Amino acid sequence: MAEAGGAGSGELFVTMGKWAVAPAPTLIRTLLGSCVGVVLYDRLAKMGGVAHIVLPDSRGDTSLPGKYADTAIPAMIADFDRQLGRKSLPRLVAKIVGGASMFQTSTPGMNIGKQNHEAVERILGSLGIPILARELGGEAGRRLTLDTSSGTVSIRIPGGTDHEI
Amino acid sequence: MSQGQILSAYQLRLLGSIFERGAEAASRALTQWLGKAVHLTISEVDQVDITEVAGLLGPEDATVAVCTMSFAGRLEGQLLLVFSDAAGLALADLLLQQPTGTTTAWTELERSAACETANIVGCAYLNALSTHLPRGDQNQGETLIPSPPEFRHEFAASLLEFAVMEQASVLERVLLIKTRFQADQAHLDWVLLFVPTPNSLGELSRIHP
Amino acid sequence: MKRLLVVDDAIFMRRLIKDVARDAGWEVVGEAANGEEAVALYREHRPDLVTMDVVMPVMNGLEALRQIRALDPQARVVMVTALDQKPTLLEAIRDGAHDFIVKPFNRERILGLLQKAGRPASDVATSEPGPV
After folding, report:
1. Rounded to a whole number, what is the distance in Å from the CA of A59 to chain B's nearest CA?
2. Domain annotation covers residue C22
3. What are the residue ranges of helices labelled H in chain C?
4. Contacts by C87-90 with C-beta closer than 8 Å and gap 24+?
5. What are chain C's partners, defined as 3 or more CB pairs within 8 angstroms?
């Protein structure tokens, strides 16, 4: 089941700290700032998922698995497995987006966006999931849309037009 | 750390009444600045689950104009004056003493007029807070000094995410104080958001009458 | 003709003050968007009066006030700011600010300031700061 809403509704919106997995034809959308959006896709099954990750490390906190990179990615994979009725891992590919920073933080050296990016790279690497595309950093927010029919990820920044990665 | 910084319902009410003083001061300043009666009211002093933050300014992917100011001193955080393009350009027309609809694009002058409005509203707020916040236990300065405002366009949900990120890194519920604007019996399409840092939330949690 | 230097990071605010000053018969000899520019322009023009914002990028108005007064102990600098907090106000007075105007202000407040500043220095009494 998709955490952010019922599957098959055509369009799903994923909020901070959540994820969604759905079969084609579904558009899965999220709006990112400093958080990192992790897109997983199974081309043969035409099933895709988006996690909106807030922090790199859960440190054992299980209350909101979608919030942390180390819990959200496994939870999203488990969701693929459940919906497909088999192990999805060997066929999954990833795209990662987000991690911008708009404000100076009050803690010098704390760039959550960058830490999230690094954690996501590490976790996907350890699971052997290839990262096909990345668009990270900068100062502007991003609207991410995954088309589960094609695996295409469209990104828009404020005042801009969609581009695909 | 996180549990100790959750404010009680009583503290939220107390905070609400202190922020009402800020809103009153900002109402007076804005009324004088614009030459017309504008009334600011606190619409929310609440701790919001991070999964519910994205929709707090309306449609998540609406592009909004925003003047951002950070503040430092006794409290630290962000003040954001958020408006739709239409409302922001109408504000610029009012300040430039021209008919509504004259301005159709954001040039340096319109951005500056919007940011100066944010500066006046934000400072009036901070001035009142520096006067009315009860003394904390620590020996901190009394001042609340803002940074110069910066103008930009952003997606509503991305802006909120940037603003709450520091709090979200240590808490699952974030504190936002939202102020609405009213003129001529009608709501203006502006919102002022006050977002303290986690440390300042700790400072606020120690307030008592 | 009396000569004015306008310092504010907001172009909108500089324009507002310049318009009032010109209508009142002042010459605006320069405008600066931060404290550093203000000190340089003061050195160049030695104006009769400076309107000085406080919160600005690069160098704030309090630091610029100190540097201008070090350059010219007779300099007349009026702080024009939305920041109406006692410690800031006291700091400005201690460092030799001539007057303190809280934004938002109306045209009359600026006019009154310019008229007062147009008189010889011995006639000028520092007015009560506060919003008008």
Report:
1. 12
2. yes
3. 11-23, 35-45, 61-71, 86-94, 107-118
4. C87/B141, C87/B142, C87/B143, C88/B143, C88/B145, C88/C54, C88/C62, C89/C129
5. B
For chain C, what's the residue count?
A: 132
Residue C132 belongs to some domain of the structure: no
Domain definitions of chain A by residue range: 12-140
Which residues from B are below 8 Å from A33, CB to CB? 157-162, 165
Would you write out chain B's pLDDT as a tens digit for each of its 209 residues?
A: 344 346 888 888 888 888 899 999 999 999 999 988 999 998 878 889 999 999 999 999 999 999 999 999 988 999 999 999 999 999 999 898 899 899 999 999 999 999 999 999 999 999 988 888 776 555 456 789 999 999 999 999 999 999 999 898 888 889 989 999 988 877 888 999 999 998 888 888 777 65
Q: Choosing among C20, C103, C108, which should be mutated to test the B contact, i.e. which has the most B CBs within 10 A?
A: C103
B70 — contact with chain C (CB < 8 Å)?
A: no
| C-alpha distance from B113 to closest chain C C-alpha (Å) | 5
Instruction: For strands A19-23 and A47-53, give the pairing.
Output: antiparallel
Q: pTM for this structure? A: 0.89
Cβ pair B54:A142 closer than 8 A: no
Q: Identify the domain containing residue C93 by its residue range.
A: 3-122
Domain count along chain C: 1
Chain-chain contact of C103 with B119 (C-beta, under 8 angstroms) = yes
Query: Measured between alpha carbons, how far is A41 from A22 in angstroms, rounded to an integer?
Result: 10
Q: What is the ipTM, given to two decimal places?
A: 0.91
Residues of A catalogued as catalytic: 35
What is the CATH classification number for the domain harbouring B33?
A: 3.40.1550.10
- Tell me which residue of B144, B203, B158, B198 sits closest to B175, measured CA to CA: B198
Size of interface A-B (CB pairs under 8 A): 101
Q: B44 CB contacts (<8 Å, ≥6 apart)?
A: B176, B177, B178
Domain A12-140 in this protein, CATH class: alpha beta
Domain hosting B29: range is 3-205
- Burial class from Cβ neighbours inside 10 Å (0-12, 13-18, 19+) for residue C47 reads buried
- In a mutagenesis test of the B interface, which of A31, A36, A107 is the best target, namely the one with the most B β-carbons within 10 Å? A31
